[in-house]
Amino acid sequence: MVRAIKGPTNPDRAVALDAIGINLMALVGLIAILLVTTKLNDIVLLIGILLFIGTIALAKFIEKGVIIDRDQH
């Protein structure tokens, strides 16, 4: 959590946020196993999709400085 906030560079922050997201997915998966339910599987998938989209957006921001290109040249 400290590396995600203080990280010396933006790529370090991105890796820390990915690690937090993966740990959150694992935690929800373990809770689903402990509660013997399949209803939390959708939550795990949703976290994974949002994590992937966030990683792509952050990588694009680090590379180009913007997330959405408004130039249509």
Description:
- With about 70 residues, this protein is mainly α.
- It contains three helices and no strands.
- The chain has helices spanning about 1-5, 10-35, 40-65.
- It is flat, with a radius of gyration of 16 Å.
- The mean pLDDT is about 90.
Question: Which features does this protein show?
Answer:
73 residues, mainly alpha, 3 helices, flat
The gyration radius over C-alpha positions equals 16 Å
Strand content: under 5%
Largest sheet: none
- Low-pLDDT segments: none
The computed structural class is mainly alpha
List the topology elements.
Blueprint: H1 2-6, H2 10-35, H3 41-64
State the gist of this model.
By secondary structure, the protein is mainly α.
